[in-house]
Amino acid sequence: MINPNELRQYHYCPRVIFYERCTPVHRQETRRMQYGREAHDTENALEKQRSLQRYGLHEGQREFNVVMHAPNLELLGTADLIVTVESETYPIEFKDSTRPPDLGHEMQLCAYGLLLEATRNTSSPRGYWHSTRTRETYAIEFDTKLRKRTKAAIADMSNFIKAERCPEPTPQVAKCFECELRNFCADVF
Ligand code: SF4
């Protein structure tokens, strides 16, 4: 099973997933990662007292920390927050970031949308990504292109994990200079 969080890491570099899943090597939690996790937990707690206006919604049923499992999609994960309005349900993610969401964040959110549609009698046409730093909220549409890219990334991860095959390194070598796993990528350096 693939966790939607892994789509974000996969977009950063597929090898991060390989090391986590197929080897005893694990990324150490940096101070920055720890701060991000703590900020995420704080935001989750505060969200319970807030209105839904930041998502352009006037009303809806909120559910926190929703565990979902869809074996046919090879997905298993826990959404921070979902909001249901009539026949539609939207996943919402909080991130401690000053940058707008990248493709990794979009695929992570889309995977929660796919999980919602697979496990509930609902449609999930979009999700929301909220920066706890800038307080900006982005609506991410789950269009056909994003759904295909998300499913393709899940299939690729699943294949190299099952085969225990190390994938190609990220083509963006600049990422490697600040990666905690660089000592294990001898072919890059
Ligand atoms: S050092 Fe580069 S190729 Fe290796 S895991 Fe880190 S980002 Fe990926």
Protein model, in words:
The chain has a single domain, classed as Lambda Exonuclease, Chain A (Alpha-Beta Complex), CATH 3.90.320.10. Helices cover 41% and strands 21% of the residues. The chain contains six helices and five strands; from the N terminus they run H-H-H-E-E-E-H-E-E-H-H. The protein has helices spanning 4-12, 14-22, 31-47, 103-119, 144-163, 173-177; strands at 61-70, 75-85, 88-95, 126-131, 137-141. The protein has a five-stranded mixed beta sheet. The protein starts with a helix and ends in a 12-residue tail after the last helix. The relative contact order is 0.19. The model has no long low-confidence stretch (mean pLDDT 90). Bound molecules: iron/sulfur cluster (SF4). Iron/sulfur cluster is lined by residues 13, 15-16, 169-170, 175-176, 179, 181-182, 185, 188.
Q: How are the secondary structure elements laid out?
A:
Blueprint: H1 4-12, H2 14-22, H3 31-47, E1 61-70, E2 75-85, E3 88-95, H4 103-119, E4 126-131, E5 137-141, H5 144-163, H6 173-177
Parallel strand pairs: 3-4
Antiparallel strand pairs: 1-2, 2-3, 4-5
The structure holds iron/sulfur cluster (SF4).
Residues 13, 15-16, 169-170, 175-176, 179, 181-182, 185, 188 line the site of iron/sulfur cluster.
